[in-house]
Design brief:
about 475 residues, TIM Barrel, eight-stranded parallel β-sheet, two-stranded antiparallel ribbon, 13 helices, 12 strands
Amino acid sequence: MSVAAIVLCVAGAGVLDAHARRSSIDQSRLIAARLGVAQIGNPGWPPSKLAPGKAAKVRNVAASPVVRSPVSPSVTATVSPPVTPTVTPTVAAPVAPTAAPVPPPDPIRAYRGLGAWMDWWDYGHPGDMDPAAIVDRLAQRGVRTLYLQTGLWSQSPDMLNPGVINTFLDRAHARGIQVVGWYLPGFADVDHDLRASLAVLAYTSPSGQHVDGFAPDIEDRSAIEQAARRTVTVPVARYPGCARNCTKTMVVDGSSVDVLARFNAAISDYSSKLRQSVPAGTALGAIVPDAKNDERAPDYWAGFPWAALASRYDVLLPMAYWSVTKPAACPAADAGTYIRDVVATTEALLGSPKPIHPIGGVADCLKAQDVTTYVDAAKAAGSIGGSLYDFLTIEVSPDKEAFWSALKRLNSERPLDSLSTNRCCRTVYTQTRFRSTVSEPGPPGRDGQAGRRPRRWGRAEGPGCAGPGGSR
């Protein structure tokens, strides 16, 4: 073999070796880049955190095709000594422990536990108790939420006594008490009711405090009844001073059927507009009639839109006033059966499960046994909270300490170990009486005109009704 041939062979081998080494380097670079890309978004794998901007660069490298550099042939081959690659071990960085997820805020927190009620007759008038002192008393009693009436359809402005409301908001929040504003709509002017309702949710005290929830009191149809009345002139017989063509002008009530239809339709309309007008996530409560009214006065409450309320409100607060079943002497009673019936009937009428906070009372016709059995039944029924109507009425009761001692158990989420249930009892009403005809503060939703509270005499019938409270 000639010298030239030997030189050419050596040069060719050098070129092939250079190509092989360059291909190996390019392949290693590609694999490394793709491994880097595979580590992006997988927090459990990567040995180290990529520097800012590095991730984008790695992705670009991985995506680009491998371009082999041309190798110029060389006449004189230079054989490089083999290079031993240096392998640097990669030490995985310690992975920080994942923090426990923060639970989302409870949207119906304001409706849970023990509540207390204040209506607009109880504050802002000469001689009324100082609102700051009221809040301090609420805190002492273990109250978690103050339900504060802010207005009603027959009064203006939309927010009554804003200065006093400011004190309630500021002091209550300083003492760790939630505030739910409630308003009594008349439903004759839905736009007016909606404006007044939204004013409660939008209201902010000078120190930046606002209500924690809102609940309309859905029960009063007197505004619709007034709107339905009309003046008519009718012919009458002759009378002194009128010899012929005698007439008389009189006010005639609207049809009860029309009033009922307008009432039910307006409730649905108002509730729909209210839900559409509040920000997403706003927890709305609805103060609703005692579901047992369907038994006591089926014609008066026919067609009440329970299903519409279920779809528009987050919490239902039925006015479960078992005191209306008592005789005028207001003896002690077992409220358990009544409360369980109200909760069960309300759930059935709604057609879907909803959080329920039954309002007990009325406190001026209760005894310690009433309140104890009310709390037992409310907890056993799975109610999210409870309260008696109303706060100041409790405070003037001779049994107030026993009342509050029992009511504090509404703040405990521990279920009752046992509870006697007389589910077969039913009350048969034999007579209706009214304890007074004077104007007085009534349960939530009184129109402020007539303060009469019905008292019904009756007896309990059915198996299992023997024992304390079995006779109503």
